[in-house]
Amino acid sequence: MKKLCGLLFVLGSLAVYGAAQGYVVQPVDAMILPLGEAGTDYADVSPGIRGGTLHVMCIEDPGGWNPYADHDTTTTQFTNRMFRGLLNLHPLTGELVPDMALSYEVSEDERVITFHLRRDIRWSDGVLFTAEDVTFTFNSLLNRYGDFPIVCEKIDNYTLAFTLDYPWRPILNGLSFEVLPKHALCQYFPEYNPAASDTEFLDVWTLDMDLKDLICSGPWIASDYKPGQSVTMTRNPYYYVYDSKGVQLPYFDEVVITIVSNRDEGVGLFLDGAIDCYAPRPEDKEFLVSREKEAGFSLIEGKLSGYGTTWVMLNQDFGLQMGRYAEKRTLYRDLLFRQALAHGVNKQALIEQVYHGDAVAQWSPVSIPSPFYAGRDEYAGPITEADAVIFEYDPSLSAQLLDELGVVDQDDDGWRDLPSGAALTINLATHDNTIRSDCAALLAEGWQDIGIHVVLRMPDYGLLVDSVYSSSYEMVLLGVTGGNEPNGGENIYSSCGNLHAFRYSACDDPTFFDRQVDMFLVAGATTLDLDLAFTHYKNYQRMVAENLDLIYLAVQSFNYAYYDYVGNVSLASPVATPWGNNGLFTELVFDQRLRK
Fold it and tell me: What is the pLDDT of residues 344-355, one digit of tens each?
């Protein structure tokens, strides 16, 4: 027999509140943002005025409305606005702060994290949010489809505890998971409904659903979807965040997201005034700057580095599975050869010619905006680059190192050969992305100038990714998204990571270097002391940078264009924008024209 699944509780709540009418009074534990108050993080943020529609764009349709079924960025830019977690990033500082939780504390042995939830906040259908929703999401969903060696227990309706086997600081980032409404979704889990299958939940809240049945906690709810055309999101009447004047957020009544087929169409919409803000490409910058004053928009440019890393990676296991290319493999595993390649990379030329001057050189596996970035002297301190590991562009040094390795032209054809005399040709693969293909072409040209025969390949993106996972590539230019937590790169840099693609064999045959990197990654993650974690992660970053398993290139600087009537958007940053994948800043922007 199907369990009640919270049905009586739902009916009781709706009898009092009705269907999605909004709060009668401000919730007891509402989140209050001190907008415009001196001495706070929000001192430069203006209290807004409610009303109006924000027009933005996206490329491609969402995959659905279920945050656990679709994880691509075309979907998360919607679900991140509809669902909240216990913790979230501060929209201005990037710090991890309480969200649906009011507060939390960590036990002395750092193994138990106790959360105190906000009281009297409600789901978008008016049902109270309680600890039952959190334990349901974690125990029925994350522990079924994920891998969390953690016990989550309800203490009372507004208190719950997570118990770990050992201290693991990155779990705090993990505990920002999207909490889902138990009363609406428990029927899709076998522990509440014996007729349900283990995977039935993943087919819930698809694009063809009646959007009136969608129940959320964030500032926005998808209310209309026209495939290939647009998505409309409407203000959640039960969103629990208010400004310091008692105005419930978000300020806009709705957001209309136009779906475009490419970025050229997007910049056209912006210039026509059909959308209010736009994240420009490097090639858009010069044209936008020439138009901004007459058109009444502004451009935030070049002040901050974006998240993520872009790099070139040699396959140090090249041919290992087939029993071929042993000499190449030996060469690629030689640090001197990778140093020769690194000194042949002209990052400044990449920045000027590919990014139109709108990028920052990289050297670390951790994103530059992260408070753990090793270009800082202390956790979250200013970026000084005092300890940066830099391989300066120096073609003559590259040539000298290659000569020392015996990688010289032995047959007078203009190309350097392997020490055995066999021809050395390196296939550099990337995908047909304008920036990456242009970067790859410039790198190939630089290496060819010092006598290395590099052939540029651009396979289908899916085939390219498959070649990385199968270790069948030779050299690849790719990138990964990044965040504040260095442990997020563990799958790449840990010797047994599932993307340790520069040398998968390290899992079975780790070197001293591999073991040291593993040690620093674990040490940084198993302490809640941020200063100590910073020290461990700094050692990890410098070791990885010096070993050149990945040769880091450059990352585009943060840019954002917006019409001047959109209030507060000038504070947009890599952490939060009015429209981006994080969903943190949309509730703070407003239409300044409504003041008149």
Answer: 999 999 999 999
